[in-house]
Amino acid sequence: MSSDQQASQEDEQRRALWLAFGRADLTLEQLWTRYFALGGEAGLVEVEAYLHGLMPLPAVQRDMLAHAINERLDELTWPHRVPYTFPARPGRPRTGPLASLVDLLDGMHQAPPEQLPAAAARAGRALGLRIAIYLVDYQQQVLHPLGGPDDCDRTPVGVDTSLAGRAFRTVQTLASTTGGHQRLWVPLLDGVERLGVLDVTPPEGTDLQDPDLRLRCRWLSALIGHLVTISTNYGDGLDAVRLQRQRSPAADLIWQLLPPLTAATDNFAVAGVLEPCYEVGGDAFDYALSPSTASLAIFDAVGHTLRDGFVAAAALAACRSNRRVGHGLFDQAGAIDETITGQFPDGAFATGVLAELDLGSGRLRYLNAGHPPPLVLRSGKVVKRLTGGQRPPFGLGTGELTIAEEVLQPDDWLVLHTDGVTEARDVNGELFGETRLADFLEREAAAGHPPPETARRLVKALLAHQNGALRDDASVVLARWIKSDELGF
């Protein structure tokens, strides 16, 4: 641009400024104050001289002066503007619940699992809260802090010996005030699966019973819980916190095939657990929930070798693949037989139970392939052993295959377990046994514990019976059917 063109442009801008100043309904002092607030460096006398064409101003100063006048013109004309159907540029929320959730989603977009603590902390700040994450180990005994930028001094806490653990066990938000320090312990859930707790520190003087505060914490916990599960699928950072030692190859294979340990619909809940979680090889379970049906399965590959994990995995995969295309119990059982005999021609077999529950009527159909019989818990008592539908173990041929039926009543529990539960022995050789199992279940029902906590406590009881170390795999699936939405979560 030539010097003449530049001078012409500057003069045109000055004239436009002078005309706009006349429409802005501002005194010279008010204009200069707005200009100065934007970072303007020229004095009041210099601005007046520029507007009258008596002296120039640098380009940056001219533009700041123009911006000050344009802001004022926007203020005057905005009330008269015609609204658009859609906003030209949707604004990003800056504070409040929506801003918190957006911060969390943006923070974990294309992020490794290790960035979750920092993303959660930013989301908490949008709500005026300090957030720290604790994840439960796979044995569900200890809550481990997921280190964030401000959490280097945090230590693990016991599930059975701390307020944080109580929030985890009961799935309830609990408040505490220690030394003037207020905090909320919020259960960390993915759906209904318990993953840990959030340690939430609100501003000083906050009412910890405020329903709005607790609701916001619950929303945040739900999203963080989903992100824990999702990010674990593509990175090992969070698993490294939850794993207390290396799993055996067979155990790792089984764990990758398992569904979530807990799931629920509005009228059905199911929880499963495997122990020992680092060495289990031959046990597995599966389930599938739909609006009308709950399908359950449990398997125990017979033997005590690495191959048991492959046998159990084959049984689970055959059952699942046939169930997913709509095949019933007959076809599922046949597919499991064919898969085991085809993949292990030198001989292998697995016991198991397959079951389908109609969620409208309570009609249960099941078959039992050489497995311990399922139990029915009703009104706090074990009322029935389901001994029908017997057939040989999977992999040994179908024999005479029949499907047994039972009708459950609302609020009944169905208990599937492997022989590692009832055959667990103490140091004196005494079996845990079905009677002790029934007594345990009845005590838990009386205490009002939901399926996931009952399953966790059962494993704890088995470990105590065997002096802290199981000698065989032990698995249990607890299911509860009701006709209302009071599942106890």
Strand-helix topology:
Layout (H helix, E strand, L loop, with lengths): L2 H21 L4 H10 L6 H8 L7 H19 L18 H12 L8 H11 L3 E7 L5 E5 L10 E2 L4 H8 L3 E5 L2 E10 L2 E9 L9 H22 L4 H6 L6 H9 L4 E4 L2 E8 L7 E7 L3 E9 L5 H18 L4 H15 L6 E9 L4 E7 L5 E4 L2 E5 L4 E2 L12 E4 L4 E6 L1 H4 L10 H15 L3 H15 L8 E8 L8
Parallel strand pairs: 12-15
Antiparallel strand pairs: 1-2, 1-6, 2-3, 4-5, 5-6, 7-8, 8-18, 9-10, 10-11, 11-12, 12-16, 13-14, 13-17, 17-18
How would you explain this protein's 3D organization?
It contains 15 helices and 18 strands. Helix 5 runs antiparallel to helix 6, helix 5 packs parallel to helix 8 and helix 10 packs parallel to helix 11. The model has no long low-confidence stretch (mean pLDDT about 90). The strands form three sheets. A six-stranded antiparallel β-sheet has the order 3-2-1-6-5-4, with helices on both faces. With about 500 residues, the chain is α+β, with helices and mostly antiparallel strands. It comes from Lentzea xinjiangensis. GO terms for molecular function: phosphatase activity.
Query: How many helices in DSSP terms?
Result: 15
The Rg value, from CA coordinates, equals: 33 Å
CATH domain fold name of the largest domain: Phosphatase 2c, domain 1
Our measurement of the CA-to-CA distance between the termini, rounded to an integer number of angstroms, reads 73 Å
How many strand elements? 18
| Principal-axes shape call | elongated
Number of domains: 3
- Give the name of the CATH architecture of the largest domain: 4-Layer Sandwich
User: Could you estimate the helical fraction of the residues in percent?
Assistant: 25-40%
Mean pLDDT: 90
Low-confidence stretches: none
- Main sheet: which strands, in order across? 3-2-1-6-5-4
Biggest beta sheet attributes: 6 strands, antiparallel
Counting helices, strands and paired strands, the structural category is: alpha+beta
Beta strand %? 15-25%
- CATH homologous superfamily assignment of the largest domain: PPM-type phosphatase domain
Question: Which CATH C-level class of the largest domain is it?
Answer: Alpha Beta
